[in-house]
Amino acid sequence: MATTTMTSTRLRLNSSTQLRSRTMKAAVNLQLAEYDRAGTLKAQDIESVSSVPSKNTSNISSRIDILHPTPRKQVWRKILDVFLPDGYPNSVSSDYTSYQIYDSFQAFAGTIAGMISSRAVWEGLGVGDSSASPTGAMLIQVIRECMGKLGTIYFAHLIGTSIEAECKAYRLGADVLTDAAMVLDCMSPYFPGEVRFLVLCCSSVMFSAAGVAGGASKSSLSGHFAKWNNLGELNAKDGSQETVISLMGMLTGTLVAYTCSPTGWV
């Protein structure tokens, strides 16, 4: 596995030369040890040199072996290493763990709320109603998506320059906007047709604003957490964490949606 951390190298050179009549043999052993900033051994490069005597010269052949340490870890630690950056906790800032815990709880609850709000939107669009028009529902969804995309462009231009300085506030604001948009989606089936369309468009615009604020502010926070210039790995592992949390949220959300539905799965 390639590491993005800077490594220190220790060099050891052993050489011995023996001269004999009509034969010369030379052996040179080179060893390189790579350590991360926390002093943990990451790999050893060992060169083995051997000589084959001939009448005139000595033909020297060499090989390099790369040895990776295999420390003994408990099963739970090996599972955590899949979702944590290399070198954790030394490779991240001190507030990384607490932030990820709260962010995981938010993502778990957000996934459940998203499934409930999506069910309400589909109900408002006529799913389960034999008299509803599929074409009309499709047009409403297309217009809603267009409003969201236009909102993304507008809010990126409006708040793009201020997100870096106030990334914490925008990260919190993104969650508030997302929750408010989900509430509107859940309430949409209770509005008449014309008003329901406006409510759905409004929630789509709120989702777009939350996406701009949340995505940009999260990038700034990730740059703060990455101590070893491991921003790419940090984002990749964060994606793995969100995937697992989303899967757990979808399973729980399915049970919640079934419980809240008066007709069960239908």
Count all strands and give the number. Answer: 4
Structural class: alpha+beta
Broad shape: elongated
| Number of structurally distinct domains | 2
Could you describe the largest sheet, including whether it forms a barrel? 4 strands, antiparallel
Number of helical segments with 4 or more residues: 6
Give the CA-CA distance, first to last residue.
Answer: 48 Å
In the CATH hierarchy, the third-tier topology of the largest domain is known as Growth Hormone, Chain: A
Biggest sheet strand order reads 1-2-3-4
Topology, pairings included?
Layout lengths: L7 E13 L2 E13 L5 E13 L4 E10 L7 H9 L12 H30 L8 H26 L7 H21 L5 H33 L5 H30 L6
Antiparallel strand pairs: 1-2, 2-3, 3-4
Helix pairs in contact: 2-4, 2-6, 3-5, 4-5
Protein name: Protein root UVB sensitive/RUS domain-containing protein
Family: Belongs to the RUS1 family.
Main location: membrane
Task: Describe the model.
- Residues 72-260 form the Protein root UVB sensitive/RUS domain.
- Belongs to the RUS1 family.
- It is found in: Membrane.
- This is Protein root UVB sensitive/RUS domain-containing protein.
- It is a single chain.
- By secondary structure, the protein is an alpha+beta fold.
- The protein folds into 2 domains: 8-71; 77-260, Growth Hormone, Chain: A, CATH 1.20.1250.
- The chain is 56% helix and 18% strand.
- It has a 4-stranded antiparallel sheet, with no helix packed on it.
- Helix 4 runs antiparallel to helix 5.
- The two termini are 48 Å apart.
